[in-house]
Amino acid sequence: TYASPLAEITGKITDAETNSGLPGATVAIPDLRKSAITDENGEFKLKNLPSRGKFLVQISYVGYQAITRVVDFASSEPLNFVLRQSVIEGREVVITGSPSSSDNRKNSTSVATLSREQLQSHPSTNLMDAISRLPGVAQITTGPAISKPVIRGLSYNRVVTLNNGVKQQGQQWGDEHGIEIDQYSADHVEVLRGPASLMYGSDALGGVINILDGLPASEGTLKGEFLTNYATNNGLTGNSLMLQGNENGFIYKIRGTYKNAYSYKTPSEYVPNSGFNESNFQGQIGLNKKWGYAHLDASSFRNNIGFYEPVRNENGQLVDDDGNVFSDSQNKD
């Protein structure tokens, strides 16, 4: 008995009007956690794939409408895809609510997707703060570092939060517990608005927030990323460094993030001891082979937040336990 040969898929991505190749386009197979980038001629190659089976393939390129196709790996013919220019770059692949990737147009549930670019383009202090801009989604917040999801009026243990398929339940309990996920690590977020109890359990009565990491690097590549942001109100600084690679199917990824902020300021005064700092370290190693993939993920998330019960003196100024007025240096400590 001989093992089935490895499948290798080749193809080309072209412009619908000029018929020229599109360099730098992304070809992804979400179910296999594989991706490839087209070369200067718009051509791509995917190796170490199952020799048979039908899988959904997503093709995307900046400034073009993303498309999805179900491809039969048993066919040896090259795959040629044609993309059309579009101001709206729709993401069609939706993983929420189904055991495998599916086309959003064939999904009966109400699903909204936030891409990585959308998450980073809007100023926010945490991940939930960015997601809350979607219609039907809000947040319960008790400070810059704490935000809980609200979907169509339901929150706490009526909304499920997933991070790469793992339930995050810390935000379901105390008022001072937010989503314990690094906002820089999310590649895209899918929000399922409405009951999803059959798939995710009784606590998904309000909906599901599915936070997904990006696909591993293309085979034979090494890439890194550095993100930083700054907010003037509370001096928030956030920095995140990531490195990932893929050597013949052996994938690895590491990320470190640190955020720090002092007390935030209202139009009239600072709110004492409302600052916070946050750190996250995570890593991933795994194999992407013809039989599928196996990934091991580990992360450590720490969040230190300040608490203050407002007390004012006879002049209306905020004071500490000893009756002393907070100074600017204390508020910016």
List keywords for this structure.
333 residues, mainly beta, Immunoglobulin-like, Ferric Hydroxamate Uptake Protein, Chain A, domain 1, 3 domains, five-stranded mixed beta sheet, five-stranded antiparallel beta sheet, 43% strand, elongated
Can you offer a commentary on this structure?
- There is one protein chain.
- The chain has 333 residues and is mainly beta.
- It has 3 domains: 1-90, Immunoglobulin-like (Sandwich), CATH 2.60.40; 92-214, Beta Complex (Ferric Hydroxamate Uptake Protein, Chain A, domain 1), CATH 2.170.130; 222-331, no CATH class.
- Helices cover 6% and strands 43% of the residues.
- The protein has 4 helices and 21 strands.
- It has helices at 116-121, 127-131, 197-200, 328-331; strands at 7-15, 26-29, 34-37, 43-49, 54-60, 67-72, 79-83, 93-94, 102-103, 110-115, 137-143, 146-151, 159-163, 166-167, 188-193, 207-212, 222-230, 237-247, 250-261, 276-289, 292-305.
- The protein has a 5-stranded mixed beta sheet with strand order 10-15-16-13-14. A 5-stranded antiparallel beta sheet has the order 17-18-19-20-21, with no helix packed on it. Strands 3-2-5-6 form a 4-stranded antiparallel beta sheet, with no helix packed on it.
- A hairpin with a 2-residue loop joins strand 11 (137-143) and strand 12 (146-151).
- The longest helix is centred in the middle third of the chain and has 6 residues, at 116-121.
- The mean pLDDT is 82.
